[in-house]
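**User:**
If convenient, please work through this fold.
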Amino acid sequence: MSDNELDEADALLELMEEGETEVEVAVQTSALKRKLDGGSVEGGQQKHPKIEREEELVGVNIPDAPKMIIYKLETQQNCIHEIAAPEKYEIKPLITPTREPAKDYDFKLDSFQKEAVLCIENNQSVLVSAHTSAGKTVVALYAIAVCLRDRQRVIYTSPIKALSNQKFRELQAEFTDVGLMTGDVTLNPDASVLVMTTEILRSMLYRGSEILREVGWVVFDEIHYMRDGERGVVWEETIILLPDNIHFVFLSATIPNARQFAEWVAYLHKQPCHVIYTDYRPTPLQHFIYPCGGTGLFEVVSTKGEFREDKFNSAVAVLDSAGDAAKSVNERGKRGGTKGDSNVCKIVRTILDRDMLPVIVFSFSRKECESYACTLKNMDFNSSENKKIVEEIFNNAISLLSEKDRELPQIYQVLPFLIRGIGIHHSGLLPIIKETIEILFGEGLIRVLFATETFAMGLNMPARTVLFTAARKFDGKDNRWITSGEYIQMAGRAGRRGKDDKGMVIVMIDQQIKADSLKQMIKGKSDPMDSAFRLTYNMVLNLLRVDGINPEFMLQKSFHQFQNYSNIPIFLEDCNQKKALYDAIEIENEDELKNYFEIVHKIEELELACSAEIKKPNNILPFLYVGRLIKMKVDNSDFGWSILLDWKKTTKPGTELEPVVMYVISVAMFVNSRSEDEKNVHNLQIPVEGMKKTLVAVDATLECIVEISSIRLKMPEYSKESNCLPTLAKILEQAMKNLKFNPPILDPIQDMGIKSCQFKENYQNIGKLKELEKEHLVKKYHNYSELCEEFRRKSKLLEEYKAAKDVFKKAKSLLLQEELMKRKQVLKQMQFCDEDEIITQKGRVACEISAADELVLTEMIFGGVFSNLNYQQVAALLSCFVFQEKAGSSKLQEELSGCLKTMQDYARRIYVVERDAGIEKDLDVYINSFKPQLMDVVHAWAGGVSFPDLLKMTEVFEGSIIRCMRRLEELLRQMVNAAKSIGDKGLEEKFEQARVSIKRDIIFAASLYL
């Protein structure tokens, strides 16, 4: 390495030695501990025993770095109680009240519930982190009771409307004076107890609602939802904006960083926040695995939490011996086969025999839920009396619908399942059907429920048993094992408190899994609550509009920034460690090695450029003949020489108006036999010496071709049939032997005729550099290989050190500050605010829009786009902003394709402004985020078409259509307010007409919980 590089890399740590960026890491436990002795009785009031103080630094010596104090309290068993408080805050011991409790319970409270109730009685905020069904709601109910007793109002927030509706019903039964505000439904808004979504509370805070002056407590249910990438930021905004005089109850699943979250709340609101944490399960769980193709269950974790290695090994042995019968359950489920289905049937029968119903069967796709339910066609779980009750409840529910809507296929198809005690629950169902199923399940009238993982979130619907039909899921990118956090959330539905002595969890395993991986999945920790904070234009504009607050304040106070402060000492230590490792390596003849590797890297760079030119369709396609030998490399895996079987021209899905052409090649290549059933080329494993290999036919892209041989093999007439692969394997192996495993390569200039001057120059330079590399001095060293390996290691350490230094530098600065400056630049250039950051009329319009892309919509309003459309076209066009699912495309009618293109043109203009401001964004991804697949459907619905007729126009699930329409109605409400804010009466009426036209019939049928 050169001296200049070392000087540059060391610069940061030299500054630290001068004291400029020194980091204090002062965790002085013994020196700082002190006790507030308790236990005595004064005036009939008993103090909470023993509080120990322990200082924890959560920052560095930079402005506003938060420094917090943690107090640990002695508690009863199965419970940890800590208090997070600002550094100079004087904590007083908790006092047991002498007056009557605000609420009595007809059961004995667990220790964590008692601790939390005591915090509330002492008017102090509390975070309760406990497993699903542990009884966290007890704490929320007590906070509500205290507010009602003290004549204060209380807000109960939940992450989704469905959960808000359910909570409204529960709380109304308990307290009567309860209201609901979810945007599309407002009931009794003057009530003392208000249930609402977090988005509604956020909106109230930005608009300065008078309601908040009367609120004493805010309950945040399912606070771990704050880590949600799409909507988690709303939680952070809301918690930051709430006044300091309000107290909080946070209810969460078990999270490993509960203390850190409480510290953040204490820092924000200058008040203590208690952490009540328990891992205790009132109903212990027993974990089994079922190896597909086998016949029995294997207990791998006992109710005491012990991992049974012997049972795991027995299950793996069954999986090995089962062979083909154990191949992917998911694949069979999708193809409608019987093997995976029969496994589910077997397990359900076993659960029935063991008297462990009801069971929730979790699958990771909506179609699988329905497919598995259909396999239980010969099973019946309900008595004749229960069948009558099910039918009565079902008929009462659908009586809310019109006669025509009652004839929908989904409605008459689901009833036979429900009567037999079998339910299906996923996002594609009609909401009224989903709620009916929830009610039936809650009443014990559904004994086997097939559900997707969304059922595990929020809804309090425990069962006796939980069954996973697979331990792998596709998350949009990879087909991966589920995380321990996902497993804990779903498995936590097993075991009903007060009804079951234990809960049973069964996982179907259809492929090899290591004991450590399974142990990590079942016994691992839940996912930490990491911030999902991100900047939005709506947030920035609202903060510019509100007096006494600005966007920088929001960044500084975010949980995102708070977590960053606490990581600074870790980043510094990482920096020091990497520098020490780098400094420890000394290499002889380092300058010569550096020169040698510069040549090697230049060759690689030029080869990449040449490869890209060769693989351009006009250069490569004329040589893609069947039988051509081509060398394949997928990602970083070299699969060696393979046979080209075919190629085709296609387009990327979802880009109907501007299709992106791509070329797909079909190739016969050798893979490790363990991965021969994989359909995705990226999941294939390379052949390993000493292990069985198989020739498979797979699809890949031109990018996977590394080299093209001049050799073409003579192919059998039936070469495209799958049963020809063994013959092709022999042909390929024999050909490689004959060619001594070194087939001749097509010369790109002489043979392929590439004429690009730049290509010819690069190609010639590669030859010259390879000569230099071949004759280089370092190749004459006796320890050449060892020196090269050592140099690579040192180079890698330098890169790691530089990366660690960059991370540390960023941690010192305010996160997202640079992005905020870029977003402000965009807003100024587009005249949403002026140079003094005073928002303009455009900015005020954008403040009204939070349900969709506020910049595009505001530009379209001021550009007169909506003025030229009728209300049906307005509704159809706006659907592109709220429909979020993948769906097949269809040709749009001309009147809609025109306005869609106009909208996309506006989006492109905004993309250019953002790009010029330095905001990185993929244009194709951005344009394709506006999904036109339901435009025709929405246009027809706004025109009065019935729902049954609407379904004939699309393959999209009924529930997905309804979700899109409800989001559209919310967006149209915001568009009405946007038009009103600029006094455009005509546009306001048009948006309102569009809103009214879609808000009808089954799509907006009232919730059964209301």
The mean pLDDT is 83. Residues 784-812 form the longest helix (29 residues). The chain has five domains: 33-277, 281-365+452-525, 376-442, 624-746, 848-1004. The first strand starts at residue 35 and ends at 36.
